[in-house]
Every structure is written in structure tokens, then in C-alpha cells.
Amino acid sequence: MLRIVIAEDAVLLRAGLVELLERVGHRVPAAVGDAAALIRAVDAERPDVVVTDVRMPPGHRDEGLRAALELRGRHPGLPVLVLSQYVATAYATRLLGEGSADRGGLGYLLKDRVLEVTDFTDALERVAAGRTVIDPEVVRILLARHTAADPLRRLTPREREVLGLMAEGWNNQAVAQRLGVTEASVVKHAGNIFMKLDLDPEEGNRRVLAVLAYHNRANEEVN
Amino acid sequence: MGVAVWAAMRRPGRFLVSWWPWRAWALLVSGAGQGVLVLAGLAVGLAVGVGLSVFGVGVLVLGWTALIGIPVGAVERGRLRLVEPERLPDPHHGAARGLRGRLRERASWRELGYALAQSTVFAAVGLLFAAALAFCLLLVSAPLFILAVSPDTVMLWPGRPVSGPLDGLPASAAGLLGLVVLAYSGGLLAGAQVRLAQQLLGPRDTDLGVRVIELTRSRARLADAFEAERRRIERDLHDGAQQQLVALGMTLGLAELELAELVRRGHDTPATALVARARGEARLALEQLRTLVRGIHPQVLTDHGLPAAVAELAARHPVPVLVELELPHRLPEQVESAAYFTITEALTNAAKHADADEITVRGGHRAGALRLSVTDNGRGGADPRAGAGLQGLADRLAVLDGRLTVTSPPGGPTRLDLEVPC
Predict the structure, then answer these.
(1) What are the chain A neighbours of B235 within 8 Å (beta carbons)?
(2) B201-215 burial, b for 16+ CB within 10 Å, e for fewer?
(3) What CATH code is assigned to B300-421?
């Protein structure tokens, strides 16, 4: 059972989210409609995890995302799952870039994922447990970037698959299960990935963030 | 601006036997009549206006009287074509109708000045000219005149009766000489009137400037309105239909959970499959809607600017796209969105028609302008006029004083250059 604070300005969707989460056994002490109310609610309720929309009143731009980053600053380690209408990798990389300074789970999912109730609640629980969950669609686009200087180009198709699943927040065992291989071979693939991307394998759970941050940096150099 | 009748006078011999003197005379004589009418109009308007000025309506009459130059100018621009082949353009601004608008225009006051000059100086000159012309014609026709009235005695000069038509010949010679003098002086005077009209009745550069600014503004207003409408549609779809579809899908997901619970307890029902299908359909609709909304106006462009939005575009493009785009700061919204949609169109064309396998988007902000190029290694031969999309974008850029150039020789490469000052 998790205590979850929800911020979503569409009334119908907010009510639906509350119903869905309570239906699967969680508790929602506060469900609010804008960023300021979200910050107040989190300060008051100290939830286990926050679920927030990106675009919210009053500006209808990225208030939710900014509130999430502010909350991470105020409550180190607070797990946050951002729900977005947009695939926009710019939002995801910003959340992961600025939000990953401290520990605690982070997630960036498309709103469509809510339709797969169990996938969504699984992802939420992984975030609450401190893992990083990035929407498969966003990962697909990040991995598909065709920049000449992109280090991700050096990965084999299988390594890309492994990296994609790691980005969705699965551990080695789950990745092995999904790909139908042994856990040892997943570990080997992960080692190759980190080597090809010049990353420290000791980063543990933060490795996907590191990959994305690295990707982001490489991208900035090109831009 | 030259004066045609003066130019013709540089060859005096030919001038004399050409149509020019006749045309000049026609202008001067008809101008006399018109001038008298205008003077009468002015006098009546002024009298009535001053007379009624105790009532408010007098001011109105005076106002309209001050505008007498406008119809005079319109008639004059037509009448001047007797001697001037090139018609003067109308100096008035089409949109500034009504008394107040016209009174505010300088052109109206210049025309009033012309009307005053015409109704006084040119009318007087015209009348004198008509009289002189009539007198000379009379002298020329002296022999015929004498013939006609004989056997009565005629005195061309007081106290010196003439005996026959032949005695009238010296008078004819004097008349002809007078006509020659009138031909040249008529040419000079007509030319002077043309010159004055060119100064007062035609548009000045400042009038044109005002008009161009007005046009540019109205085009910019249209473009703004168009952009605002795009955003409104995008917001409505995003806040309305999209959210409701997500909520619908979520409700279906919950229903599926309930059904799964029933199935687990042994109550099998075909509704499970139906609800699953409905949820799949909701997800498809949602995906389509998202593509549509992105095509209308991408939120990432608003929030993160052009490079992020173009990177996004490149990432989901079927052909590899290399992006080298460097901008030191955010650009004006209109410029960003025009550039974004131009790049979108170029990428779409490259994938659809050019058969390219590599596209480069390069650019930055240099020397006070956003300069961008999109190059593909495809087969070329693109006709920018054929694509309504590019044409529309070029129009949109033109509003911002920008330019779009497409070079696409057969065999490639196709290169699209964009330049917008900002």
C-alpha cells in the first residue's frame, strides 16, 4: 500500500486516477489541480510517491514538471512519476538531468500507459521503490536518434534492447525474463554497454540516468 | 518625372505641325470652364458653411468644401492625359474613407491647393487664352469674313475701311503669327500645369510608405490571428478530447480488471474480449490525436524552443537527420513557429519525394537574422511552385520579411534556405 499525491488538472482524469489507484489497494490522501496546490499537498501529506501532469494551470506549459523538480529539491529522495501527453524527449531528459542529483525514484510516462492498468501500477511501484522508469516510446526515440557523433550508434541491436528495458526500470532478472536469456548474459550485455559508453558500472541503479545524461551531453555537443 | 509637352517643344518646327498645340489648347480652354465651376463651388460652400456655422452643420459643410480638391483631382488626373500620356496614380488611401479620414490625409490638402490654383490662376489664364485664341482665329478668317459681309464696308482697324477680301490678308498673316505664338505659349503653360499637377495630385513617397506599412501590418495581423487560432485548437484538443479519451481508456481498463476478477471466480463472459478491444481502440484514437495535435502546434516548441523541437522532429523521422542548430537565445514566437513548420515541410518532402537517405539541418543566428538550410542527398528536381505547402510557408515568411529559397537541380541535392530577420 502506497500513499500517493496526484496532480492533474483534468477533473475526469483526476477522479479516474484516484479510483484506479484505490482499486488496486493504494491510498490517495490528496488529489489536486495545479502546481501550487501540489506543493502544499506534498508538504502536508509527505506521500510515498507523487504523480503529476506536465501541463497544468495557470500557464498550461510545464508547471507540473517544474513543481516536480522543486519538490525533489525540498524533499530529497521523494519519488516522482511525471505523466505527460507528449513523447517530447526534451521534458524527459530535463527531468532526469535536473532531477537526478539526489536519490529516489523518477518516472516519465505517457498518459496512454494509464490505459494498461497493471503496467501503470507496476511502473508506479518501481518508481516508489526508487527505480527509474522511462516510457518505452521515449526510450525508442532516444535510441533511434541518428546523430553522427552519437555513442549509442556503437551498440548492437541486442544491447539497445537491453538498455531500453533497463530504462523502463526493470532489473537484470526481469530483463533476462523478458528477452528469454539468462541473467548472466544480461549482465554481460550491460557490461558491454557501459564500456562502449565509457560509463562506470558501479553506478548501479542510476546507470540508466547516466546513460541518458551522457546521451544528452553528447547531443548538446553536436547541437 | 518629365513633362511630355515640354519634351516635344525641344523640336520647335515639328512641334508646330504636330497635334501638341491643339492638345495644349484643349487643356487650357477646358480648364478655364472647369476652374470657373470650381470657384463657384468653393464660393457657395464657403458662404453656406460660414452662414450655417452658428448651427453645427456649418462646420460639416466647410469640411466637405475643403474636400472639393478630391473630385477636382480625380477629374484633373483624367483631363491631363490630353497632354500627358502617363496617368497620375490616385494618392488616396483606400481604407481611410469618410470625412474625417480624408481630412487627415495630406493628399486631400494638396489637392485643395491645386483646386485653388486652378480655379483662380489657371482659370484666368485659360480665359485670357481662349479670348486670344478666338481673336487670332478671327484675324485669320478676315478675308472670308469680309467676303461674307460685303457689300457692306468693313473696318478692321477703326477709321480705315477695307475695300475687298484681299485687303484682309495682312490681318490673316497677323492672326497666323498670333496662333504660332499661342502654340508655343500654350505648350509652355500646359506643361506648367502638368508640372504643378505632378507635384500636387499624385502620391508622394510618404503616402506610399504609409500604405506599405498599413499593408504589412494587416498581413501580420492575419498571420497572428491564424497562429492564435492554431493554438486555441491545440489547447482545446489537448484539454478536452485527449483527456477524455485517456479517462475513457482508464475506465475501460478498470472494467477489464473487474471482469478479470469475475473470470477468476469462474464466470466467463464475452464482455472481457469486447472491453479489451474497446480499450485498444481508445488507445489508437489517442495516438492519432496526439500526432494531430503535434502537427498543429508542438508544445515542446513553446516550452523549449526551436533546437529542442527540431531535435524531436529529427528523432522520429524515418530518414537519418543531422541537426546542427545553434541559437544563443529564444527567438520571437512567430519566427520559431515559421521556421519549425518550414523544416517540417522540408523533412516531409525529402522523405516522400526525394528518396534521400541523409538530411542535414544546419543554421544559427547570424548578422541579425535566423539562417537555416535543409539539405538532402536525394534525387532533386523538386518544383517549389508545385507544393502548396512550401508556397504557404514562403508567404508566411514574407510576412516576417523573411525569404525561402529552394534549389533542386535534377539529380540533387535539394537545398532549402530560410532567412528571417529577428
Answers:
(1) 60
(2) bbbeeebeebbeeee
(3) 3.30.565.10
